[in-house]
Structures are given as structure tokens and as C-alpha cells.
Amino acid sequence: MAVKDVRGDWTIQQSTGHVVQIHIDNQDDDGTFASPQNTADYPGEHGTIDDAKATDQEISFRVNWSGGARGRYVGRFDFQGRLTGNGFDEANPTVQCTWACTSKTFGNR
């Protein structure tokens, strides 16, 4: 089964105005990429990524932010490998946003 290769550094622009830097070192052949080396950052916050998987069409991951929020990101890849999605705080699901990866297109592993 083909999966998108999400390794590397990429940027998410959230509708809240936050710009999140994603760093993915490790991704397994089945698309999972939960690893302590996989991180997310924006000014004043650092997070580790877990419960994470990419398929050929979709992505889902959680960022455990240093301030206590648990951000769930769910997205879809279009036919050109562009990524867009929705996010919410698992501790407070009414806090939501839309987002788009603005720095990279994704190909298959």
C-alpha cells in the first residue's frame, strides 16, 4: 500500500494565524510516524508528535504542546500532493481551525 512520505521539515499555516513548524525524522513503511524525534514548534510552544499516520490520501497526528494543549490535526492530500485539513484541541474540542501546508508537496514513499 502506498503512503505519502511526510519526512522532513514543513510548515502549517493555521486559520488562527499560528504558523507551525513540523519536523518529521522517522516514518515507518506503513505510514506511522509517532516518534519522540518528530516535533512541532511555533513561537513560545514546543510539542511532540504521536498517534500519527499518513496514507496515500489522508494524514492524522496529535501534537502534545508544552503548554498542555493536545492538538489533533487531520488532513487530506490532493492529487498534486498538497495538504490541507482541520485541527482541534482534544482537551477542548470547541477550539478548532483549518490549516494548510504552505511549504511542501508530498509524494509517495
How would you briefly describe this protein structure?
By secondary structure, the protein is mostly beta strands. It has strands spanning 8-14, 19-24, 35-42, 45-54, 58-65, 70-77, 83-89, 92-101. The termini are close together.
Q: What does this entry look like structurally?
A:
It is a single chain. By secondary structure, the protein is mostly beta strands. The protein has a single domain, classed as Lipocalin (Beta Barrel), CATH 2.40.128. It contains no helices and eight strands. It has strands spanning 8-14, 19-24, 35-42, 45-54, 58-65, 70-77, 83-89, 92-101. The chain has an eight-stranded antiparallel barrel with strand order 1-2-3-4-5-6-7-8. The N and C termini lie close together (10 Å).
What's the topology here?
Layout: E1 8-14, E2 19-24, E3 35-42, E4 45-54, E5 58-65, E6 70-77, E7 83-89, E8 92-101
Antiparallel strand pairs: 1-2, 1-8, 2-3, 3-4, 4-5, 5-6, 6-7, 7-8
